[in-house]
Fold:
Amino acid sequence: MGQRHCGMMLFLMLFCWCVTASCEELARAEADQGSCLRQFDYGDALGRAILFFEGQRSGKLPTGQRVKWRGDSALLDGRPEKVNLVGGYYDAGDNVKFGWPMAFTVTLLSWTATEYQREISATNQLRYLRSAIKWGTDFLLRAHASPTTLYTQVGDGNSDHQCWERPEDMDTARTLFKITSSSPGTEVAAEAAAALSAASIVFKSVDSNYSTLLLSKSKSLFELADNYRGSYQGSCPFYCSYSGYQDELLWASVWLYKASGDNNYLNYVLSNQGWSQAVSEFSWDNKFAGAQVLLAEEFHGGKKGLAKFNNDAVSFVCSLMPGSSSAQIKMTPGGLLYTRDSSNLQYATSASMVLLIHSKTLSEGHVDGVQCGSAHFSASQIREFAKSQVDYILGKNPMNMSYMVGWGSKYPRQLHHRGASIPSIHVHPAKVGCHDGLNTYYSSTSPNPNMHAGAIAGGPDSNDRFSDLRSDYSHSEPATYMNAAFVGAVAALVSRTQ
Structure:
């Protein structure tokens, strides 16, 4: 919508209302003008969201590192057990490497790269996205140290969370956690399998040897997950399994089918379709919706026996769409999906990503939308609703605030993030210890000295309010899987010819 049209629209609205409208309605009209005039550059937002991952890197940084305030860190990870666990990602604002959410992050990024390759190529971001994926897959390959071993965590979450240190200064214990055939963790092994198989599709046309290696290790991880079943609780209380492991097994088998074309994986899905549940969230813990949307695409492509998954995908859409008789997720007054208070934007971004992919499937399959009781939603309506969530995050909200760091003029300045909140080691080379960091930088009311560009904060509360306090980690902390889901959502909105 052009600015001239918006201006004329606002003038007519104000003219018609001037006699009877309240001051509140006039103020709302002025706010609508700001929303109408706001045109987002989704390609720019995509690039920034991908850049975020360079600020989360652990290990020896590459020569092409663009986030200059970071330095090398955790170069001895894995040494106590004589395994190389250097690299990978710090998952959020701390200095622990949690393998389960890291693998989910890689799966989401890989899904995006396969789903929107042309759109991402149009923004010249595909090489950066592939680099972000490979930084994660390289670590997962090293973590799968033997056919029956997967290292799942580096660092002790409890001791780490008692400190406020840059990764470059980190001196907390780098405790190792792993799963084996005698100490299983199906969720994390299956998610790692999903990540490597999805990534194998990404690299198939650019590095066939690497793609083959990823697929081979993915099959090995799936066997570990499926043959030695047991729920993963090794990263509790930070990442506990609430949904069980059946969602991850379905999710991984779907990705293995897509990557390999081996019908044994599709038969696995068909023989276990009773596991599939109607859900209202897609997250690092619950993968059902992702698997259902992938299988709905196969269903609309003519694959037989997948009707249950398509129906469950419809249920997911209906649980989110405003106006649906079966809507389960509340909305904030400003129009944001609100699943729960802790880092709510992780759920809004992942829901948006899945809704946009499913709307694409419906459009390309010439399917007349979905029916939710008495309400019908077309593919374009589903897409527009998901787009509204992305726009909310970028600033179209009651606070006129972007929840992406560095985007616009009003964004979170006190991100709950150790590395961003302490001066860069290149500027302040003297060590900042655990308690010095807490007393001097964590407690500071000043903005972070390092802009973690592209980071998505946890987001506002249920009334669209955001206090921008470093101590308020539920709302001000970023996470890799939150950004990964946003990458997937915003990529869908980029023009192929940008």
About this structure: The chain has 19 helices and seven strands. The first helix runs from residue 3 to 17. The chain has a mean pLDDT of 92.
